[in-house]
Amino acid sequence: QVQLVESGGGLVQPGGSLRLSCAASRSIFSPMNWYRQAPGKQRELVALITSSGSTNYADFVKGRFTISRDNTKKNIYLQMNSLKPEDTAVYYCNAPQYNSWGQGTQVTVSS
Question: Model confidence at 44, in pLDDT bands (50, 70, 90)?
Answer without folding.
Answer: very high
